[in-house]
Automatic annotation (TrEMBL), chain B:
The complex comprises the extracytoplasmic solute receptor protein and the two transmembrane proteins. Its main location: membrane. InterPro entries: DctQ. This is TRAP transporter small permease protein. Pfam families: DctQ (PF04290).
From TrEMBL, chain C:
NCBIfam families: dctM (TIGR00786). This is TRAP transporter large permease protein. One of its GO terms (molecular function) is transmembrane transporter activity. InterPro entries: DctM, TRAP_DctM. Residues 15-424 form the TRAP C4-dicarboxylate transport system permease DctM subunit domain. It comes from Marinomonas ushuaiensis DSM 15871. It comes from the Bacteria. The complex comprises the extracytoplasmic solute receptor protein and the two transmembrane proteins. The lineage of its organism: Bacteria, Pseudomonadati, Pseudomonadota, Gammaproteobacteria, Oceanospirillales. The keyword DNA repair does not apply.
């Protein structure tokens, strides 16, 4: 009997840790756990099915069975989950991932119809990386053209007097090298994985934002699977999976951090006091962001934000 | 290969075609103006910075979103125009050798293929548009509703599909078979 | 039937539909949709059909195409082609076969502001063919030099084919443009040499020997300056990081419109026809991209590309043999297909193979465009040959095809040079 073929799609290059440490091993483990009942084929970034803005529609329609996507793509979809991306909500990937998963059943589940979520998680906080101008405090952001990763970060850059620029990750290097942008708000791992350490010499570790992701399976595909496969999926996802992201991100980030550090770059870590200062300055922007969400019909936006902050502060 | 098979000119069709052409062209022209103005503002900011050390942060906010919208208007309407004028990239060597009867066959085959492909596209696209109303998403910087981007696509596909259906039905009601003019 | 076999069958079926003169986009689309449905069931197809047309138009990077097309169309309206031809004629006209050489020079010049081969043939053809006829050049030589010269439109940057290759393979368009400059000049030189040799071997190509060409005057050269200005701003701007390819195209289009207005070459009628041409070309190219994207969904899911890569790897075929096979495949396909459709159709399964064999993607982009443009002039189906026939009445296909043979030889020489001396393509990008 030929194995049941499952398609797994994501938007990252195969060299990325999310592919090589998380999804690829997860897929192979599922194959062996189900003793060959299923076979998982992965469609990474660059393939037709790996289009980041279409991943959710792809998995909901059943064009692929499993997908891993960014909550920010396309914009406007997963607004509740993305409240976690507001400045200074979470300090690390572990805390953020666990909190998202904790809030999922009561607050976030409705955002993901037709897809059974296997994990919600986030990256470690990103930094402000610049090419020529050192950024060490809040006023230095003014006038800089910075590539932004999330909508909340774009609002933040604007609020601090900078100029947010939208660019796909793969184009950041070229634009930084040519001086089209002055820097990027990005996670440490990109210094290594996109070679950005070659062009970005100044790094401000302000722990301002995290980017959130989802990992899910088409509900109908899941429902019609044999019980043993369901069991294999259940035991390798959810809490078990969510708990792994903290260590993974630390490992991926370390490569980029070490590269910048050993090259003698200027790395500034923002003190807690300064972070409080930033937060104060950004509070109007945060209020505005949440008010916008409320206007869009997400009436409990502020409640979700408060819950996230509570969980974060308790840690 | 790329040929202009103009059917017997009917002024109504020509009028529609010209109207859609102008709409589509406005999209491209807007995209052009957006880039030129944005680049101009950015370059002047840089120049001012060189001389005064102050950097005015000029530029069009959300220029990419607006460009995408302009092109999204231009392209599907352009496809519609090509259907209206029966202008496509095709290999018509067989037409030259096999003559009139093959031409009718090929014309029906094209119309049928068009109905199948455009029909399924239009159907799925309207489902997507519906989905956008229920479950809206928006553009990256300006948060424009993506429904705006879907409408022109639906319009262009509809024009093209209508042309295919009429060119499939037309020969059935025609007294003299037309099409020797290829 | 296994999935890769279905993929192979689909590829052949689409060629068959294309040969029945079904529009290329519809042929690829129909096969793509049916094939995908056959392998993945109907619900997957709804996703593909709902997303492919949108996603084929939406990306910002693609807006470069309509803008470059607009630049070419409006440049053609403002008499620049006649100026270019006059300037080239002044420089080369005195030589034996000089008018044909001038035609090629004018094509190269026009290629530097126009991204498409079609437009180059049509634009230069309208100016140069009557002149060559007047001077007693045989139709065989005149038509062929225009058809061949037209391929410079896609080789010399900006180039729609290179843009599409770059987008499909995620390579930098700026680097591809830079890589194409030397091969483009090489092509121009080889065509000129080809004319010089042809008229010596076959003197009856020039029925009337007395040629009068204008004396050297700076005034004439100066009239062609907007072309140089536009090329420098567009290509230079991309290289020095002043703007992205899309922005460069927007500025180029603006320059062309401004020039057309300044030279008072736009009235209501010519503006309408320029709009028709811009919109028509844009629609045509994007419709093919949409059709090809359906086809690519199908190819990817059939596993044919992956199978090809693993077969070549498993057999330990030396890279040079594999490359030779790929080039022969393209040459054969080029006899029957149009260049852009060919690139869209084949890149999904050829590109992974090329990368796994260790070839440079930028270099291969130039090779693919060279081979694909060779397809534009090879009988029986060569788009440029048809367009030349479209420009002038009473020009039998056999005449054009006879004349094109030396140019095909010239292209073969260039292909060999580019393959054996990769520095011809890779030197300029390595500087940036
Ligand atoms: Na060109
Ligand atoms: Na050919």
């Amino acid at each position: 009997q030929s194995p049941l073929k499952l398609k797994l799609a994501h938007f990252l290059p195969t060299g990325n840790g999310l592919h090589s440490d998380f999804m690829e091993p997860w897929a192979r483990e599922l194959e062996s756990c189900s003793s060959g009942t299923v076979e998982v084929e992965i469609f990474p970034g660059g393939t037709q099915l790996g289009n980041p803005t279409k991943l959710y529609d792809a998995v909901r329609s059943g064009a692929v069975d499993i997908a891993n996507g960014l909550s920010g793509m396309p914009g406007g979809r997963f607004e509740r989950s993305r409240i976690a991306e507001l400045p200074f909500v979470f300090k690390n990937a572990d805390e953020a991932s666990r909190s998202l998963w904790k809030l999922f059943p009561d607050y976030l589940q409705d955002e993901y119809p037709g897809v059974k979520m296997l994990a919600l998680y986030s990256s470690n906080p990103g930094q402000v990386h610049t090419t020529k101008k050192s950024v060490t405090n809040i006023n230095d952001m003014s006038g800089l053209r910075l590539r932004f990763p999330t909508a909340a970060t774009a609002s933040m850059i604007k609020a601090l007097g900078g100029d947010p620029v939208g660019l796909p990750p793969g184009n950041v290097y070229e634009n930084a090298e040519k001086g089209v942008i002055d820097g990027a708000v990005f996670t440490w791992d990109t210094m290594d994985s996109f070679n950005l350490a070659e062009v970005m010499k100044y790094h401000l570790d302000a722990k301002t934002y995290v980017a959130t992701f989802w990992f899910g399976i088409n509900q109908a595909s899941y429902d019609k699977m044999p019980e043993n496969v369901k069991a294999c999926i259940d035991q390798s996802t959810g809490d078990v999976l969510v708990a792994k992201f903290g260590n993974w991100w630390n490992k991926w980030d370390k490569a980029g951090y070490d590269l910048a550090n050993s090259a003698g770059h200027e790395i500034t870590v923002l003190s807690d006091e300064q972070r409080a200062n930033w937060l104060e300055k950004l509070q109007p922007m945060i209020d505005n962001y949440l008010a916008n969400l409320e206007n869009k019909g997400i009436s409990n936006a502020r409640e979700i934000y408060t819950k996230m902050k509570e969980i974060s502060n308790a840690n | 290969m790329q040929t202009k098979h103009n059917d017997t000119p009917r002024s109504g069709k020509q009028l529609v075609s010209d109207l859609v052409t102008v709409l589509s062209f406005i999209g491209i022209a807007l995209a052009m103006l957006l880039t030129v103005v944005d680049v101009g503002l950015r370059l002047s900011s840089t120049i001012i910075e060189v001389f005064t050390n102050i950097r005015p942060r000029w530029g069009i906010i959300g220029v990419v979103d607006l460009m995408q919208l302009a092109i999204m208007v231009a392209v599907p309407l352009g496809i519609g125009v090509n259907f209206l004028n029966n202008r496509h990239i095709r290999v018509d060597i067989a037409l030259d050798f096999l003559g009139k009867r093959f031409c009718c066959f090929s014309r029906s085959l094209t119309a049928m293929t068009g109905i199948a492909v455009l029909g399924i596209c239009l159907w799925s696209a309207s489902k997507e548009l519906n989905g956008q109303f229920v479950f809206p998403s928006s553009s990256a910087t300006l948060s424009l509703p993506l429904t705006w981007y879907w409408m022109p696509l639906i319009a262009g596909l509809t024009i093209s599909l209508v042309v295919c259906i009429s060119s499939f039905l037309y020969p059935l009601f025609e007294r003299k078979p037309n099409g020797g003019k290829h | 039937m296994s999935d890769p076999m279905i993929g192979m069958f689909g590829f052949l079926l689409s060629l068959f539909l294309i040969s029945l003169s079904v529009p290329v986009a519809l042929s690829l689309g129909l096969v793509g949709i049916t094939g995908y449905a056959y392998i993945n069931g109907f619900s997957g197809v709804l996703f593909v059909a709902g997303s492919a047309p949108f996603e084929a138009i939406f990306p910002y990077s693609l807006s470069v195409i309509p803008l470059f097309l607009m630049m070419g169309v409006f440049s053609a309206r403002c008499g620049l082609s006649a100026d270019l031809f006059q300037a080239a004629n002044m420089l080369l006209g005195r030589l034996k076969g000089g008018l044909a050489m001038a035609t090629i020079g004018a094509c190269a010049g026009f290629g530097a502001i126009c991204g498409s081969s079609l437009a180059t043939v049509a634009t230069i053809g309208r100016v140069a063919l009557p002149e060559m006829r007047k001077a007693g050049y045989s139709d065989e030589l005149s038509a062929a030099s225009i058809a061949a010269g037209g391929t410079l439109g896609v080789m010399i940057p900006p180039s729609v084919l290179l843009i599409i290759y770059g987008l499909l393979t995620e390579q930098s368009i700026g680097k591809l443009f830079l890589a194409a400059i030397i091969p483009g000049l090489l092509a121009t030189a080889l065509y000129v040499i080809c004319v010089a040799i042809s008229v010596r071997i076959k003197p009856d190509l020039l029925k009337n020997k007395q040629v009068s060409s204008p004396d050297f005057e700076w005034r004439i050269l100066r009239k062609a300056w907007p072309m140089f200005a536009m090329f420098t701003v567009v290509i230079g701007g991309i290289q020095f990081g002043l703007f992205s390819p899309t922005e460069a195209a927007g500025i180029g289009a603006f320059g062309a419109v401004a020039l057309a207005i300044a030279r008072r070459s736009l009235n209501r009628e010519s503006l309408m026809s320029a709009m028709r041409e811009t919109v028509g070309l844009t629609g045509m190219i994007f419709f093919i991209i949409i059709g090809a994207s359906f086809f690519n969904f199908f190819m990817e899911t059939s596993g044919l590309p992956q199978l090809l890569v693993s077969t070549v790897e498993a057999n330990g075929l030396p890279p040079s043999y594999a490359l030779l096979a790929i080039i022969v495949f393209y040459l054969v396909l080029g006899c029957f297909m149009d260049a852009m459709s060919m690139i869209l159709l084949t890149t999904p399964f050829v590109y992974p193979l090329i990368v796994s064999l260790g070839f440079d993607p930028i270099w291969f982009g130039i090779i693919v465009v060279t081979v694909a443009e060779l397809g534009l002039i090879t009988p029986p189906i060569g788009m440029n040959l048809f367009v030349v026939q479209g420009v002038v009445d009473d020009l039998p296909a056999s005449t054009v095809m006879r004349g094109i043979i030396p140019f095909i030889l010239a292209d073969t020489v260039r292909l060999a040079l580019l393959i054996f001396i990769p520095a011809l393509t890779l030197y300029l990008p390595s500087l940036s």
